[in-house]
Amino acid sequence: MTDEEKKSGPVRMAAIEGMVSDIKYKGQILARTNKLESGIMDSGIIGFAIGLAVALILVVPVLLMVVH
């Protein structure tokens, strides 16, 4: 085995380990984003209903003041 072959082994492993850790990181980000989007989609109707109720509660007194 030559000196070049001895030096190239650990360098290649370091590069492969770097790529693997990068892939794991990106996979974790994708999983987190997917979970977040699923949670938002599940609570979307409830959130819309609560927002509509709050908006109506805030608008009704203003409309009553304008009418009188």
Short overview:
The protein has 68 residues and is mainly alpha-helical. It is 94% helix and 0% strand.
State the main characteristics.
single chain; 68 residues; mainly alpha; 94% helix; rod-shaped
Order of helices and strands: HH
Instruction: Report the count of strand segments.
Output: 0
Distance between the termini: 96 Å
- What best-fitting shape do the alpha-carbon axes yield? rod-shaped
Helix content: over 70%
Strand content: under 5%
Description:
The protein has 68 residues and is mainly alpha-helical. The chain contains two helices and no strands. The chain has helices spanning 3-42, 44-67. The radius of gyration is 29 Å and the shape is rod-shaped. 0% of the residues are buried.
Sequence-ordered SSE layout with sheet pairings:
Blueprint: H1 3-42, H2 44-67
